[in-house]
Amino acid sequence: MTTADFVKAFNEAMTHDDIDAVMKLWSPNGEWVVMATGESFKGLDKIRELATRSVAARTHGAGEGLLPFNVFTDAEGTKLIWEYVHKAVVTDKWPASTNRPAPGTMIEIPIILSCDIQDGKLTKIREYFDLLTVTEPGNHHYLYK
Amino acid sequence: MTPKEAVTKYWEAYTKHDQEGILSQLAAGYTLRSPLSGGPATKDMVAGGLKLFEKSFPDLKEEVVSIIAEGDRVVCEVLETATFTGSLDWPTGAIAPTNKSYKLPFAAFFRVDTRGLIAEQRNYWDTAAWIRQVGIDAKLFEPKG
């Protein structure tokens, strides 16, 4: 799988809430770290827990989902980083946070995912975003201003 | 100078507190977008911000954790550390120092022009994690419409 295919597979799986497809991309000893909160999810069971939580926290309508706009890979193909905007509508399952948006709120969050890849599988994700960027409808995030 | 070298030099200048060195790496039409800037920031605005933060966080250090370059684009992960020891003259008023230290992992995208100068930068960090660690009122940094 090329890195472009990898990005496409990940984004489509997350956009269409296909957790089994997300899990197929991971190595058994993988780790997903949410840098904003410092939370670490290590191993397939914990990663599935995070993916399930993330999917339950929002819904996607037409034109929404993970919208990538800038993809980087290293020469060896072991490091993949991409920028995207996650556009979605918040549900009542959004995890507790200091800036918890009301259910029904449209959010647009700029995110960078830094991925380590070995033998075609994800071994680590570090996810960077700003919780305070969660916005109200019609209130654009900092990349669009 | 390659784009990767230009960005590495930029972060080194930050850790040396070399404000002229930082600004010399930026193109005249440089644009910064970050969670705290509230909108696109120019080179002049960055120069003002550097003076502001030098007074407030005189021990600031930037450690580059990873860096990837493709053509004129560079992306890196950085660990910023500092201590809030001097008054911060924020637009909403002066914020008294708390003498608290912070560790802020973040990711940054760069586009470097043909002269080796940084033309564009986008930062991804969690403002909520930063203000919690330095111990200041989150309301001062909430995004405005």
Give the SSE map.
The complex is a heterodimer of chains A (about 140) and B (about 140).
Chain A: H1 3-15, H2 19-23, E1 26-34, E2 39-42, H3 44-56, E3 58-59, E4 65-73, E5 79-90, E6 106-118, E7 121-129
Parallel strand pairs in A: 1-7
Antiparallel strand pairs in A: 1-2, 3-5, 4-5, 5-6, 6-7
Chain B: H1 3-15, H2 19-24, E1 26-33, H3 43-56, E2 61-70, E3 73-83, E4 88-90, E5 93-95, E6 101-112, E7 118-124, H4 127-134
Parallel strand pairs in B: 1-7
Antiparallel strand pairs in B: 2-3, 3-6, 4-5, 6-7
Counting DSSP E segments of at least 2 residues, the number of strands of chain A comes to 7
| Total of domains of chain A | 1
Count of alpha and pi helical runs of chain B: 4
CATH architecture of chain A: Roll
What does the main sheet of chain B amount to?
A: 5 strands, mixed
Characterize the main sheet of chain A.
7 strands, mixed
Overall mean confidence score, pLDDT of chain A:
86
Segments of chain B where pLDDT lies below 50 for 5+ residues? none
Structural class of chain B: alpha+beta
CATH class of chain A: Alpha Beta
What attributes characterize this protein structure?
heterodimer; A: 145 residues; alpha+beta; Nuclear Transport Factor 2, Chain: A; seven-stranded mixed beta sheet; 3 helices; 21% helix; globular; B: 145 residues; five-stranded mixed beta sheet; two-stranded antiparallel sheet; 4 helices; 28% helix
